[in-house]
Amino acid sequence: MTLTQVSKITRIFILAFFIVTFVGSGTFVGFRIWYANYLSSLPPVEEKADPKFGVLKIPNFPSSTVSSSNFSYSIDTTTGNLPVFGSIGKVFIMPPTTATLLANERSQSLATKLNLDPNPQILTETKYKYSNPDSSLTADLDTGNFSFIKQASASAQTTITDNQEQLINGLKIFLNQLGVLNDALKNGPFKVIFLDSDKKTAQLSLWPDKIDQKNIVTPKQDKSLVTAQVTKSATEVGNYLSLDFTYWTVDTSSFATYPLKSTQDAFTNLQQGKAIVIIPPSTSNVSITEVSLAYFQADTYFPYLEPVYVFSGPNFTAYVTAISDSYLENSK
Hints:
alpha+beta; Lipocalin; seven-stranded mixed β-sheet; 17 strands; 24% helix; extended
């Protein structure tokens, strides 16, 4: 074979290679475009609930002083419509706790840190009370939750100079010194309310951090399950007039999924009196400016963390169970 023939064959081979490459690339790109269009034309996969916990009890809502059916409502959200949150929601397990061998020792340590006599009055097998003439502590050995109260003294009547952030940081430092601060409370929302015009007493509240990107709500909108009343500052035990600590552990790895009511159905529940009014309005006409999906925690133990719809507006808040009524016991 001559060099001329070799050169000719090489040119033909190169040309064929480029043709095959071009056609192949075009075919591949065309297939990708077709496949993308095919996928986009498919109906969305419907998420299915897995209600493996069975029928649920209605959360331990507080008793409502008025019926939500007593009022008329207008939807005044930024869009003018009710928001949409999806049709499926998670329900988490809140595992029960029991007293350990160290529970008694821990409650005595807590009493000592609160300047109380560490010798308890035994109220029940799992509830101890520690007292001084001007203060007392009631501790639950099963849960580790407790309530402390102290009589205010005249020397405490001093204007609080710390700002809200300093007060909350002081509360977190104090809880850490007591050995009860956890990560959920470190990073959760908070609120400070001054209880008098002279700012001599402040109410400090800490909520746990969000779960599944949803806030935790409690029986009182402006008061959490971890709340304190302080004077002067929140870093010293002598400045605490009260400290209520109730914290429920949530097992975020153990959950089931349940069908949710639509926000329209929840709004109908509100109109029908099937809601718990947390803040009753002062007028018969209520403006709903915000609707959110949250998780409710009561001040008493409940085995599940369940979602609720929160309807709120000026001087008004109400909760409606978010789980479909077909999966709730004794739903109205």
